Task: inverse folding
């Protein structure tokens, strides 16, 4: 979450007249994340998060908002999109598609406990189960083809060691066909800053704007890499065991997924190494823009290349 597009008090006040939220009390830009513009908004009748979509395909936005509504209506701890007076959950603000969703309670954690890792594993498993009944479809915008084209762009800009690493990963991962693994709705970005807790209790899963249809195992790998990695790129095996056990209690991986596990962990690390390296190499303008260092994901990728993965 970042602020690329400024919104004035007058603009937001006019926007909110289309919703049954009462008068605007205050709002504040959110300076974390790297994709969309986000504000906390307080009104007479609630607390909300306003998102202005900066780079997402407008045709995909109904998928994201529909998914939030699908999950929230089934008791999942996701935000509920707010419909305007005409029943629409998407409007234009300052020239950008924008949506207002309920603000969930809780805070993200930097150093999760084993209990919190287990809660995230359970939340991911429940998402994969509930997502099977969601009929919306969306291609992974950061999938195999994006990784290939982004890698080829970066090959022209990076040092020799990084060129070798990227080329080797492209070759290794060309042997894996994600379409042969179980598919479904995935979050695709279930990092620590996208999960909220009150003490040990998970209270919210947020930022579904990378959600898509793809291999469920890839989503598990993305989550494990963030929640269980140490600063040197190695995995905390106790945290990994807690997360995976809770996930398996909701959904048991099959034989093909177990065989692909190591390479999928590498693919998940490679995706975030590439995106962070790209943003580092080609920074975007904006207020409160947060650019993340690619080095941690380089370390995670190197670890997966050298070590056996935790048992799935």
Result:
């Amino acid at each position: 979450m970042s602020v690329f597009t400024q919104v004035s008090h007058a603009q937001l006040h006019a926007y909110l007249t289309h919703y049954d939220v009462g008068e605007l009390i205050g709002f504040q830009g959110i300076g974390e994340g790297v994709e969309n513009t986000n504000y906390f908004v307080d009104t007479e009748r609630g607390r909300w998060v306003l998102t202005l979509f900066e780079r997402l395909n407008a045709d995909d936005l109904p998928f994201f908002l529909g998914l939030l509504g699908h999950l929230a209506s089934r008791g999942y701890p996701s935000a509920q999109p707010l419909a305007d007076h005409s029943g629409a959950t998407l409007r234009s603000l300052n020239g950008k598609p924008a949506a207002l969703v309920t603000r969930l309670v809780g805070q993200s954690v930097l150093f999760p406990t084993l209990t919190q890792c287990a809660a995230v594993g359970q939340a991911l498993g429940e998402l994969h189960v509930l997502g099977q009944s969601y009929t919306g479809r969306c291609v992974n915008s950061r999938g195999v083809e994006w990784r290939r084209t982004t890698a080829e762009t970066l090959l022209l800009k990076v040092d020799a060691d990084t060129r070798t690493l990227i080329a080797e990963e492209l070759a290794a991962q060309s042997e894996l066909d994600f379409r042969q693994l179980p598919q479904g709705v995935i979050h695709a970005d279930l990092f620590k800053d996208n999960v909220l807790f009150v003490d040990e209790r998970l209270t919210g899963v947020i930022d579904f704007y990378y959600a898509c249809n793809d291999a469920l195992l890839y989503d598990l790998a993305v989550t494990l890499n963030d929640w269980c990695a140490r600063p040197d790129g190695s995995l905390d095996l106790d945290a990994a065991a807690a997360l995976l056990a809770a996930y398996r209690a909701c959904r048991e991986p099959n034989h093909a997924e177990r065989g692909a596990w190591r390479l999928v962990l590498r693919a998940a690390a490679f995706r975030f190494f590439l995106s962070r390296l790209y943003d580092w190499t080609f920074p975007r303008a904006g207020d409160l823009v947060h650019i993340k260092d690619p080095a941690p994901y380089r370390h995670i990728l190197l670890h997966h290349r050298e070590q056996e993965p935790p048992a799935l």
Q: What stands out?
A: Residues 111 and 227 are 9 Å apart (CA to CA). Residues 255-281 form the longest helix (27 residues).
